[in-house]
Every structure is written in C-alpha cells, then in structure tokens.
Amino acid sequence: MIRPWHTWVIFTLCLAVVLAAMGWMSLTVLRLERFTWRQATLEENVRLALWRMDSALAPLIAQESARPYFTYNAFYPAQRAYTRMFEEIQLGEVLIPSPLLDQASPYILLHFQVGPDGTFTSPQVPTGNVRDLAEARRYTTHERIETSAARLAELQSLLSRNSLLTALGPPETQPTQMAVLPTQGQEQASQRPSPQPQSRQPAQTLDLQQRARRQAQQIEIQQDKHMQQGVAQQTWLSANERQARVANVDTNTLIITNDGSNVLRTSFNVNEELARPMWIGEMLLLARWVSVNGGGYVQGCWFDWPAIRQWLTSEVKDLLPEARLKPVRSKRTTDEPRMLAALPLQLVPGPAPGYPGRATSPIQISLMVAWICALLAAVAVAALLVGTVSLSERRAAFVSAVTHEMRTPLTTFRMYTEMLTRDMIPDEAKRRRYLDTLRAEADRLSHLVGNVLAYARLERNRSGSRAETVTLRDLIDRLKERLTERAERAGMDLVVQAAESGLTTRVRADTSAVEQILFNLVDNACKYAASASDRRIHLEVDRTGKQVTLGVRDHGPGISRADARRLFRPFCKSARDAANSAPGVGLGLALSRRLARDMGGRLYLNQGVNDGACFVLSLPAGN
Question: Tell me, which fold does domain 381-620 have in CATH?
Fold first, then answer.
C-alpha cells in the first residue's frame, strides 16, 4: 500500500518535471519569437530600403539614359536638328551649349564619349575654339574645365574601349560591318560589330509595360500558391521581389527614353541602346552603345561612388542604421535578393534590430494563459490528492471503527444465544434480561447499518427525499414515541418544550429524514451525557421568521472548540477514539447535516448554552 507521503513525493517530482519542461519550452518559444521578430523586421526593413534606394536612383538613371546622343559634345548646331549632329561645325552655324557642359550633379564626376577610333572626349572638357567660346560666354569656368580634364585623363588611364565593349556585351541590333578599334597602350585591333541603323519601335514601350505587368501578376500567383502550400521561403520572396523592382525600373526608364524623338533617330540612322550600369575596376559607370550613321560610340558617365554610397545609406538610416553597400562586380551574383535594381550594388543591412520586449504579443499571452492553466491544474490535482488522501484516511478509520462497533454486538449475540440455546440460564428473569440485551444490541447494529446505507445513498445522490407539509404537532407526535423510547433505554427523560401556538405552524420537510436526524441527536445525547446529574434531554420547538427550529439539548460535558471543528466530518472517529469514548463511528452528524441540506434546511451546533451540548435543526416554514 502506498503511504500518503509517498504520494506527495511522487506528485512533487512530477510537478517539478512538468514545470521544468514548461519553463524550458517557454524560454525556447520566447527566444524563437525574438529571433523571428528580429529577422522579419530586418527583412521588412531591407525590402523597404531597397525600394527606397531604387526609387531615389530611378530619376538619375532615367535622366542619364534619356539624354540625346549629341549632348555628349560641348556644343551642337541647332539648324541640323538630329540630322548630321556629329559632322564638323561650319562657320556661321548657331551653336547651342550642351547641358552637360556645366554639369553640377553631386553624384557624377564626368560624362564621357569614346569614338570609333578609341578617342576619349567629354562634353565637360571642350578644346580649341570651342573652349574659348565656353569660357568667354561663361558657360563654364576654367577651373571646372581643368578639373574635368584631369578626371578625363585619369579615366583614360584606367579604362580602355575594349573593357567598355566587353562590359557592355554584344549590341542588341544585327551587325552590318566590322569596325577596327584601337586599344590603349598596345597596337592590336579589337572588332565590335557596328549595329544596323534601326531602333526600337514606340510600341516596344507598351510591350515592355505589359510584360512587366504579366511578370508581377505571375509573381503574385506563385506567391499565393506557395503560401497555400505552407511554403514560406524568405529567399524566394526576396528574389521575386527584386525581379519586380528590376521590371519597374526598366519600364520607367523605357517610358522616359522612348518619346517622340525615337522617330527622328530612326529617320537619320541613329540608334541608342539603354544605358547599363557596370563596375570596371574601382569605377562605377553608366554606359550605352550608340550607332550614328554606321559609326559606333560609347557614351556614359562616371559616378562618384563615395557620394553615391553616402547618399543611399543616408536615405535608409532610419530603417538600417548600420547598413552599407557592397559593389557587385561578378555577373553571377546579380540575382542576389539584396541587390539593387538600378545599380550593381548589394545591400549589407548590418545587425538585426533589437527586440522591443512587448508584453502583449500573442505568443506571450498564450504562454501566460498556458502557465495559468498549468498552475490551476497543479492546484486542482493537489486539491484532489488532498481530498483523496483525506478520504482514504477517513475511510480507513471508518472501517476500523465499524469493525470495532460491529464486533461488540456480534460477540454479545454469539455468547448470549449460545447460553440461551443450551439452557444455561435457568432463571426466567435473567433470561428476559439477556433477551432485552440482545434486542438493544440489534437496535444498535441496525441503527449503525442504517446510517451507513443512508450516507451511501446520499453519496450516490439517491437520497429519495419525500418532502411534505405538516404541522409541528403532527411531526412531534410521529417522532416522540421512538425518541422517548431511546431516551428511556439510557435511563434519561425526553422533555418537549413548545408553545401551543407554535405547534400549529406548518413545516415543509421529509418526516423520515427529520426522524433520523432527531434520533441521531438524541442517541448522541444518551451516549455522551450518560454521566450527567441532570438526566433530561430537551426537545425545544420554536419559530423564528420563516424558519422552524428543532433543538436537542442535554446537560452533559459539552463539546470543545477543537472537537467542534471536525464534528460534522464523515468518518472522523477512529477505532481508538471509539474505544476511549462513547460507541459510534462518527457518521451520524455528517449524515444528519446532509439530510438537513437536502430538505432546504441546516443543522448546526449552538455554542451559546451554559452547559451541555445543543444541536439545532432549522427547516423552512410551510405556507
């Protein structure tokens, strides 16, 4: 048999294991929440930063891509109007300064052009009479020309036409002839096909817009499909988002560059490709291939990379305080999800933002609810164990007391019946006394068994109460004979104290239950007040408001406060208590209180009396 302390040790160990497991899971979930939140916030900030930087670069890239090819000369004749803009300027022609002559962009160091013969020129570095004209008319200054000339010389020392052509790749138009191009620092020739003088039709802009829209729609459809399948892949989403940004930048650039001038360029054998950003060495360039009357030119600009870097990182300072941009020089890494769409740069976001420590997140609320439920469950299990252990102990005491209580009458039955059957009692008076003893012990045993069975019925909610409305006079008349007989057997007198007007009061009660309650009270008074000098047991009947009270009072030693606290507990008397006190198993008062509650009344101990014990049964008065 498992002892009670064994049960509590096992419960404590199980509770410790459960709480430790829940604590570990809670810490893991909170760490995962912080990590997930930080990563999700970082990815969201990265996406916003990429869109913000591409949006900031879009006007600059579109502006440079939309420049007419002849603006890469310091001056161009107005009368020719796209016809023969690259031919030698004639005397008397009206010249218009190029908008690039006095370029003041903080993000561009130099605009340049590489001719078919490999010569590097810049609209910001006019030469000869054109320079005199630019300085005389104050279109630019001598200092700016000298600065641009130094940059052009540096660019020419670091760059060759071959490297530009290699970075640009093959032209988009079909070749018609081969041009021999000189290289820098060596005499070998490099051939690049000269594109056929044709250009994109204006309808191509609409086609590209439709293609971009279809691509965005396909991305949304694929994203919804992956979400429905439960596949949340951040890399896949970022890569497809970059495709959408690339399509957006390309579409906006095409809308700007393919305007009405496209028709004039087609009429006079001019074709301009879209400008492409590239890294050549440590230089960030934006260059394009231009075909004019069969001659191939490379036009572009040299970006100020430190200024670009500082500008873009300052744009996203609020999102990514420690962000930096890394040049991407390999074409194999151009599909990285954190690549800019406008320039070959990769965003390095830096560390993830700190967790704000919100106390109302759904996960934290769920954990708090789980902990509350677990603690309530532990308290419930502890209370259940307390009740179970206590019930087990009381039932063990009950079995011990019942065994002791039944052994005494059974022993008497066995001894007296054996003596009577063998005619060992010749005296008739003594034989009658023995028969009276057997009858008393039978009543005692019957009373014990009746209490146990009645309590068992109450425990199973099968009390079978049959309440009726009767007057107090009728109720007392039904009970008085049995109660008086029990008091007389103990050598005591039952005294009924009731006013004549009170006996006419009607009460709603189960007569058999009231009889069992009062009999238990009188029986207790007979057992515990047997040594009292005053042999009276008082049955006091009274009415207080809507309640009728029936009190049973004796003149015995009374009940201490310590015993009063456990007086109405079932199975509260052990065999040792029963042996050292009056007979009984401690079930009568518990049964009586349960019967009183079933009738809508209550049974309590009145401790306001001077001597003895007084138990009061309160019942609702009838109509």
Answer: Heat Shock Protein 90 (3.30.565)
